[in-house]
Amino acid sequence: MKAAFRRLVGWYREHRRDLPWRHRSDPYAILVSEVMLQQTRVEVVQAYYQRFLARFPDCASLAGASSEELHAAWAGLGYYRRARNLQATARAVLERGGFPTDRKRLLALPGVGEYTAAALESIAFGRPALALDGNAIRVLWRFLALAGDPRQASIRRELADRVEPLIDAPGDFTQALMELGATLCKPAHPACPACPLADECAGKLRWRELPPPPPARRSLEVDWSAMVLVRPGQVFLEKAEPGELLEGMWRCPAAERLEGLELVGTVRHAITFRRITCRVYRGQGQPPERGEWVDLEDLTHRALPAFTRKVLRTAGLAV
Q1: Active site includes 200?
Q2: Which of 276, 226, 197 is nearest to 9 (CA)?
Q3: What is this structure's pTM?
């Protein structure tokens, strides 16, 4: 098996995609990439990664950013809690005098779980840690033809115990597993003839059932009405409070009263497991107490999530 893993690393070095975070080995840059890549496609992250690092090149700059600056830099990536957790991690690293290099202390950082800690250990610090994202789990589950539920912590630990002693070149091995799962060992129709692990893959004839798919999460249907209050050169926005939809981001207020407002369209949008149907009303009138008038020319500098942009565009505003 160790020989197979060496072939995997060799394949990665020859065939890997040229992604911007693969030119960096410092823990901060690796942390930013790993957090951005959680639940977001590589193609989307590439457009944000370099800009984010140019704006916040280190833990100190990110730790000192205002909420508005942070959300504006993250706007469009979605799952905004990731940005707040990333900032909390940067602040904790500064308080501790730098990044820890071992698993236990990495896991003590806010927002750092088992996968992120292992990715930092292997890519940034060269330690033989097995980082199990969805792609890595699929590759290894098929390669070893494992049984059981890969979401169970005990099974993941058993997998790490079997694989970690065989890891050479930890950073490349971690990224090789991810790369193989993203490009060849895909959920459907894997390209087994081109796979560097194919000769020893115990599950290549059973790929449809390995690993077993997780149970589908039931979507939550959300019915919403938003009012786009306008006056010459301005629109009224409010910042969602903790626990509210789009926490910490700017949105149009809920349409609680409709006098003087016109229904101009409907927006459909998905946020994690929520499926939002939003009726959009536009007009003039007395705004709610919470919020502020924003100049239309300043909208590009605000932390506007994709949902708010859809609402504003439906109301005829250019954002």
Answers
A1: no
A2: 197
A3: 0.82
